[in-house]
Structure formats: C-alpha cells, structure tokens
Amino acid sequence: GAVVSQHPSRVICKSGTSVKIECRSLDFQATTMFWYRQFPKKSLMLMATSNEGSKATYEQGVEKDKFLINHASLTLSTLTVTSAHPEDSSFYICSARDFRADNQPQHFGDGTRLSIL
Amino acid sequence: GQNIDQPTEMTATEGAIVQINCTYQTSGFNGLFWYQQHAGEAPTFLSYNVLDGLEEKGRFSSFLSRSKGYSYLLLKELQMKDSASYLCAVSDGDYKLSFGAGTTVTVRA
Fold it and tell me: pLDDT at position B88, please?
C-alpha cells in the first residue's frame, strides 16, 4: 500500500535554530502534500498545502516566513521551521495522497516531534 | 469553514461494541474519513465514505448520511489494542482534511 516517510522522527534543539523536516511518498507520486501540527491532546490542525512546482497555500494564522515549504518533486516536500522558539514545540505530521486516484485517503507520515529548549 | 463534532471520550469493555458518532457542517464535501491514532503516533487510515450507507471492514464499520451531516464508526469485538483516539475528518472539494477533536476510546478488561 501507499507509504509516506517522514524524517526526522524527533528533534531537540536550542531556541533560534532552524529545523528542516522531510516528507516523502515512497511508492506513489503526490502533486499535493499537507502539513499538520498537533499539540498535546488536541486534534490535527492543517498548516499548509504543499503544491509541487508552485507556492504552498497556508491556512489562516500560519506565518509563511516562519514555516517555509518546498515541494520540489512529486515525491518530496520539506517544511523548515525557521528560528524556532519554545512555542513552536509540537508534533508535526505530513500527509500525501496518490493524485492518480480519486477518493483515495491521505496517508500520514510517522510525524516529527519537535522540542525547542 | 468546517465544523466537526464528536464525543470526547468513550469507555467500553473488551469484546463489546462501541459506536462513535460524528456530525459535520461543511462548505464542501468530498468524503468522510475515520483515522485511528495511538498516543504519540501518527494517524492511520481506517475507513472512507463518500456515498450514503455502511462500509464494513472486518471489525470496523463506518456509516454516512450526507443529508444529515452524520457519520458513525462502529468498533466490534473490542480488543485492548483498540484503545486509542479516533478522528473523524471531512475532505472538502480540494481534498483538504478538517479533523474533529477526536474521541478517546478506552477498552477495559
């Protein structure tokens, strides 16, 4: 079945560091990938839609300059949290769907737990 | 925007049946998904409904009524490993997913 790989699974770093998270679709092509953030005991909140070959679409309240998204190929999207601060600590999850098939579910990566000290 | 409601918590006994309801009000509709999420892990896909009716997949079934904006996930023959959060998510016309807050199911021995 479809598999989405997300890396790294866990990051602990100092405040002010920029962190890059990769999301790969392993056995299908994804023109669109999605980035979510989840705080403890809360549901997933969509941050942005990553579009291959064009600019990402950000949800209201999400800072474009803070969360940089690059979708350079049909199998890879990256999210860079720039100058991360403790309030950016969260569980970041990407998802992708096979664009060739309608009515297919989004498949999620394993998530990245980001802890900013 | 989307408004998706589901109960916060449910508790059931091993071997029993539990039904998790989800109601939604959305500006667009391209299907309703149910995901299972264990603590500290990413969600895993359980079921998808785009037409009215019941979809059965082993111990899990999902129902949809588009006219009522209502879905439920039915978990049968509960096992301890079914203790998790269950997320109802609605896809809009652009395939973006909006999630409910999740229902934490606790299975007791």
Answer: 96
